[in-house]
């Protein structure tokens, strides 16, 4: 949760290097919130992040 908005879950991604990817969804579905959180522009206010079922702290990512 960021700024009182839930980030949709579960979110499945299959990203490949050197490819262009898009993020689509309905108005106010959390696209910008998700990208701002991943870019560390806003702090989380709740919830968890997991990759392949294992908890992840964004502070530990490069």
UniProtKB/TrEMBL annotation:
SUPFAM superfamilies: P-loop containing nucleoside triphosphate hydrolases. Gene3D superfamilies: P-loop containing nucleotide triphosphate hydrolases. One of its GO terms (molecular function) is ATP binding. Residues 13-54 form the ABC transporter domain. Transmembrane segments: none annotated. It comes from the Bacteria. This is ABC transporter domain-containing protein. It holds the Pfam family ABC_tran.
């Amino acid at each position: 949760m960021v700024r009182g908005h839930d980030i949709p879950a579960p979110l499945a991604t299959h990203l490949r290097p050197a490819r262009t990817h898009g993020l689509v969804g309905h108005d106010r579905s959390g696209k910008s919130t998700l990208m701002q959180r991943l870019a560390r522009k806003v702090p989380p206010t709740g919830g968890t992040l997991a990759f392949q079922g294992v908890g992840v702290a964004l502070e530990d990512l490069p």
